[in-house]
TrEMBL record, chains A, B:
<dbReference type="InterPro" id="IPR006680">
    <property type="entry name" value="Amidohydro-rel"/>
</dbReference>
<dbReference type="Pfam" id="PF04909">
    <property type="entry name" value="Amidohydro_2"/>
</dbReference>
<dbReference type="GO" id="GO:0016787">
    <property type="term" value="F:hydrolase activity"/>
</dbReference>
<dbReference type="GO" id="GO:0047584">
    <property type="term" value="F:4-oxalmesaconate hydratase activity"/>
</dbReference>
<keyword id="KW-0456">Lyase</keyword>
<dbReference type="InterPro" id="IPR032466">
    <property type="entry name" value="Metal_Hydrolase"/>
</dbReference>
<dbReference type="InterPro" id="IPR032465">
    <property type="entry name" value="ACMSD"/>
</dbReference>
<dbReference type="GO" id="GO:0016831">
    <property type="term" value="F:carboxy-lyase activity"/>
</dbReference>
<dbReference type="GO" id="GO:0005737">
    <property type="term" value="C:cytoplasm"/>
</dbReference>
<dbReference type="GO" id="GO:0019748">
    <property type="term" value="P:secondary metabolic process"/>
</dbReference>
<protein>
    <submittedName>
        <fullName>4-oxalmesaconate hydratase</fullName>
        <ecNumber>4.2.1.83</ecNumber>
    </submittedName>
</protein>
<feature type="domain" description="Amidohydrolase-related">
    <location>
        <begin position="3"/>
        <end position="333"/>
    </location>
</feature>
Amino acid sequence: MIIDCHGHFTTAPKALGEWRERQIRAFGEGVRVRPDELEITDGEIREAVGDGQLRLQNERGTDLTVFSPGAGKMAHHHGDERTSLDWSRVANDLIGRVCGLFPDRFAGVCQLPQSPGGALETSIRNSVEELERCVEDLGFVGCLLNPDPSDGFYQAPPLTDKVYYPLYEKMVELDVPAMIHVAMSRNDALQGTCAHYLAGDTAAFMQLCTSNLFEDFPELRLVIPHGGGAVPYHWGRYRGFMQDKGLPPLEEAVLGNVFFDTCVYHRRGLELLLDVVPAENVLFASEMIGAVRGVDPETGRNFDDVKFLLDGIDMTDVDREAVYGGNAQRVFSRLKSRGVAK
Amino acid sequence: MIIDCHGHFTTAPKALGEWRERQIRAFGEGVRVRPDELEITDGEIREAVGDGQLRLQNERGTDLTVFSPGAGKMAHHHGDERTSLDWSRVANDLIGRVCGLFPDRFAGVCQLPQSPGGALETSIRNSVEELERCVEDLGFVGCLLNPDPSDGFYQAPPLTDKVYYPLYEKMVELDVPAMIHVAMSRNDALQGTCAHYLAGDTAAFMQLCTSNLFEDFPELRLVIPHGGGAVPYHWGRYRGFMQDKGLPPLEEAVLGNVFFDTCVYHRRGLELLLDVVPAENVLFASEMIGAVRGVDPETGRNFDDVKFLLDGIDMTDVDREAVYGGNAQRVFSRLKSRGVAK
């Protein structure tokens, strides 16, 4: 079974974005837009995924996509905690409907109603409730955790700060992982998909390396997307840093709890990822339909057709099974109770 | 001739750091510490590099190091423009003395008196003057340009902003490149050497990709250190992004002006760098003595003995000559007038 652990609903019906724009505008005017003001029909949902994700799943041979709201569009800096909570419910409910319509092809991952600055702590308490709702009521299998709800200015404490602990307690209780994923960048110095995303991944990994988080939560599972940002390319730097500081080796310090996806859009990058990171820590993903949509003239295939690239890389059968789906079933363990495990 | 294009004076005599601490403390008390209050003898300088950089140059077979003040210690957020200017002069003068004592082994690169926030513009004007002083009076061959003088919060405009243009004009006039290098991080969420450094490299590359800077300055040369941050590992993402946006291919858009160093501390990372980036854009460097100081148990050699790692990688003779020194002589073109070119 081939599981793409990183897909966003970037093709959502236009009404979703319009609702969000009205919500942001209304907040500026001191009013709220109600979540139930959004109207999207099942037909519109079928159309939105039918010619997008579903078609590509079929063409590329992916069985299931772990599916979340558009990451950039989480844009946690807007409004207040209530803004973020309403928006998360709206976005997550829509993911829930996609998964309800196509239960064999999509498993839900929710965005969390995070907020930056003084609202962080309250927003994490709200996130605990929203996570519980999404997992228990909507059957979701994980969440997206944004390490920078300021959206490009890195003003939150590290993810290892105690302010996040109620969320980690709930994740462990529900047995769900988080994918650590920044949202948009509103910082002109940090372009979104090719700078902020990778910076966020790299920063988060280092936060994890230099903390005791996994002593406090030995069961916690975190996925770092985009092939781990800069991390595998600089694996020697991280190994050397840990050794210099008298910290345990990376394998011991983080690889029991931290996983990387394969959203790396060229063969050489994927080969490096698979060479330096143990196969049991790598999860197939394509970020589809996502950051890069065109066809690579060097391969004649879409840049984000990662399955095609991985198919061309030498791996043992055991490793391939793990990377293509086995690891995802272990990390997103609720996939099993959803009945999608083989 | 083997040229390490990225070395910092991390082993500077203690008096330097003590002067800087007094300067920062004094600023808080509304007074200034004079640059001439720093006293360091030639003997102390000889000792500081003799058992450090010089010994390692000899052991590892490096002829010349392009040498700059400690990057983290630039810490541009402290004090005001004058603080940064005094500190830059002190730090650069010391580099000038190292180069004066060992002219065949070190060529100077200066730190710039940048400052964040409202002081940015004035600080860039000061940087123009300090660059001119260092190149014309001290014989330096380049400068370090910090894309984030806020030291970890990314509050400056992109490096392509017109505020930096007077500096680029002077660089072109003097025919010197800049290495784009952040300083310390004072942000708990962004560890310095393994997160902020790589995030800064990656962010800067993306700023360059999405601008017309090199149309305005076709002669400008910029080196992105630490193997280009996350960039070569995600080469496909960048190629795809440029194509999606209708921008020219990377080769055309930036590779006439942008170069990567080899500060990547494991063989697999270096292989990837050399596979995806044309050899003429890669400059040997080890960041020695720098971020990672220990011995890699997998090789029995220091993590930052990049020369040893590169020696073990297949390259044509032409590429090896370019990467080991030829490119550095082209990019840091003033090395030639210093008489160190072969």
